[in-house]
Specification:
two-stranded antiparallel ribbon; alpha+beta; single chain; 9 strands; seven-stranded antiparallel beta sheet
């Protein structure tokens, strides 16, 4: 009984199961386009580093998106500072990448909120310029913070897309509602300013009634308000206001790193 109780504690409930099911469907779509893959793991004293090389099947959406873009640097990686649990940067052809994401969503279009999300992915090619970087960290081991940056060719178009997704009838609200969660999302435009740059705040609030306490704690650790801004063709955001201020300073050429 004691052992069964432990297993039950870590088994996903119905609501969490729906999220996992969506992730599995998306992964299956991509897996069908892979011809071969190699994963190398490097074991360190306090971390595991992984490197993956993927070969795509000819003629698939994955093969199309893996076509190398024109040779130029990624200006987003230098905006993020410090180390974290996960760090990622990439440079792709923006239009090809948005078409790839929309194709990945095709098998999920019937799910609540997914049709709107697929549309947003397809439209992102109009404003995403192809470079991005993401850093996930856990300051002092308490909760999680996500910092991110990307290049955009149309700042107004990108903000409009964010506003559409964050609205009361947006993709995120519909998805969480289907899982039985009351999630309220809103976008507060020009919530504050940094060096004259408008900072917009994406706010989250949720009713976690019915979820097991461990999952409630995990959700609260992740669902923090996110602030975003646009600086000289760069889209920057963070769940840490101080970190976003530093990113804006760097983008304006005033930051010194750290």
């Amino acid at each position: 009984r004691e052992q069964a109780g432990r297993v039950q504690d870590i088994m996903p409930d119905e609501k969490t199961g729906k999220i996992l099911a969506l992730e599995v469907k998306a992964f299956q779509a991509i897996a069908d386009w892979i011809d071969d893959a190699q994963v190398d793991l490097t074991l360190g004293e306090d971390a595991v580093a992984s490197q993956m090389v993927i070969g795509a099947k000819s003629g698939t959406p994955l093969a199309d998106v893996l076509v190398a873009p024109s040779s130029s640097g990624n200006p987003t990686a230098s905006l993020l500072s410090g180390t974290g649990i996960m760090a990622m940067s990439y440079r792709v052809d923006g239009a090809r990448f948005s078409a790839f994401l929309a194709k990945c969503m095709e098998g999920l279009a019937a799910e609540p909120g997914m049709a709107e999300l697929k549309e947003a992915m397809a439209e992102s090619g109009k404003w995403f310029a192809g470079s991005a970087a993401v850093l996930m960290r856990s300051p002092e081991g308490k909760g999680f913070v996500i910092d991110f940056a990307g290049t955009v060719s149309d700042e107004a178009g990108c903000l409009a897309a964010v506003e559409k997704l964050m609205g009361p009838d947006g993709a995120w609200s519909k998805m969480y509602k289907d899982m039985g969660m009351t999630m309220t999302l809103s976008l507060q435009k020009d919530a504050r300013r940094r060096e004259g740059i408008a900072i917009h705040r994406c706010k989250y609030s949720a009713d976690f009634k019915g979820l097991p306490e461990p999952q409630v704690a995990q959700m609260k650790a992740m669902l923090k308000d996110i602030e975003i801004a646009f600086v000289k063709g760069l889209y920057v955001g963070s769940q840490d206001p101080a970190a976003l201020d530093a990113m804006i300073d760097r983008a304006l050429g005033k930051g010194t790193g750290g």
